[in-house]
Structure formats: structure tokens, C-alpha cells
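Observation: inputs received (chain + A2H).
Thought: call the complex predictor directly.
Action: predict_structure
Action Input:
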Amino acid sequence: ENAGPQEYTLIKMKVCKPYPKKLKIFEGREVCLVAGTLRPETMYGQTNCWLHPTIKYVAIATTSNEIFICTRRCARNLSHQGFTEKWGKYEILGEFSGSDLLGTALKAPLTSYDKIYALPMMTIKENKGSGVVTSVPSDSPDDFAALRDLKNKKDLREKYGLGDEMVLPFEPIPIINIPELGNLAAIKVCEKLKIKSQNDTDKLVLAKDEVYKKGFYEGVLLVGKYKSELVQNAKKKVQSELYESKEAVKYME
Ligand code: A2H
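Observation:
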């Protein structure tokens, strides 16, 4: 782990109404899966949300009168960052396995898809961020590999009770151009390195290294208010706007 605190942009992925069975207890309230990202400027390219099927998630109420769903570890950290009624305390209003929440329809900020779905990713870590990850397959090799696994494997979709309509229509969105890597950099590099699945760990490390470095230093946004600006200049501006519009909150760990 790195020294010093890390700032995550915690993206509110709002559960669409009518709520699925497991979330009916929260009817009448706003419920969000909250996803920790280091790349707020990529939110234009979200195609789905990732949950780990066997990780436990909890629901807590925030002072903004919303329900946040995240790992217990994240809930505790949030309670020490002023998100709950009493400092350092959080009441667990519900507890779920990732698999309970798969297939949940969500409304996420900035993406051009009106509605996206919670899907399974096996490489999510329990002890990082919120345990909820937003998926940007255009610019994240991990996200591209995991989405492609689900698209290629009908048995995997069936195992988690996912309809084809939750997976198959969602194509990576070109949102950033990187010189030499083009406007779908993660796909280009996954193909170059012949990455077969989300479990191709060693090759994915190489892919991520290349895509993230070049994306940050040389990437140019292709969409949104900061179209044509360098990623490194636009990042803070997109982040501030998400905080201001209350579509995201700042989360440290
Ligand atoms: B990033 P760091 Cl487009 N387990 O968001 C596994 N991965 C997690 C996670 C967890 N519990 N929590 C967050 N993440 C992912 C977007 C993105 C991200 C892009 C490109 C690079 C990138 C879309 N996914 O991260 O270990 C989230 O994915 C590059 C590192 O704390 C989060 O940002 O440094 C990032 O990893 C946080 O990783």
C-alpha cells in the first residue's frame, strides 16, 4: 500500500425504481451503490457497475438522507468522515452479498447509457475503496476483460441470473484519445498482449501500466464539457462538478 491518504471520487450509482426485491425495504428513499474511482474524468464511458459476488455489502443512511451501499469497511470509514448522523457510528440497515445485488439497474452520472447494470467481477478487493467499482471498458483493461468474459460466456451470465439485455448491448464508449493507442485504448492493448480473460493477471498488469500512464499524460477527452482538453487538466474540473452536483462525494482512505 502507498503511504499517505488516497482521495477517491465516490460515484453515486442510483438504483432505478421500482426497486428489486432485496431493496424493497428502502422504498421511498434514494439508494445508491457507491463506487470508488481515481478517474472521475472517465465517467462518460461507464457501461456497468462491478460487485464481487461473495463480498458482503451493507446499507447505511447518510446525513444527505440517502442510503449508501458499500463494504462494511467503507461504511466505517464514511462514519469517520462525517457522512453519518453520529461521528464514528453507522447503523446497518441491510446486509447483502454481491450476488444478491447483481442485475440491479442503475442510473450513473455522465455516461451516455440511460441505465446500466450491476455485474460480477472476480478481482474486486474487499479492502480497497468501497468494494463497488464502476466499469469503463474503453480505458480500463480490467473492466474490458471482465465485460468481455460476461459477453462471451452465456453460462457465466446464467450462473448469476443476468439477462442478456444487461450485458450484450453495452459496448465500450470512445471517450479519450491517446496518441498511438487510439480512442479505445484498453481494447487495443488487451488485443496487443493477447489477454484472454480477467484472470490473465500478469498481462493485465502490463496493459494497465501502459494505458494508465499514457492516458493520464497524453490522453485528450473526446466528449463532454472539456472535450479536446488533456485528461490531466480536465480531471479536477470534472471531479469538482460531480461534487457540486452531488452526483459524487469525496472519500479518503
Ligand atoms: B478506476 P487503487 Cl477508467 N478492487 O475507476 C479492485 N479495483 C478497484 C476497487 C476494488 N475494491 N476499488 C476501485 N477499484 C478500481 C475507473 C478507472 C480506474 C479507469 C482507469 C484506471 C482506474 C473505472 N474502473 O484505476 O489500487 C477503480 O478503477 C487505476 C488504478 O486504489 C479505481 O479507479 O489505486 C482504482 O481501481 C483504484 O485503484
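Thought: report the result.
Final Answer: The first strand starts at residue 7 and ends at 15. The chain has a mean pLDDT of 97.
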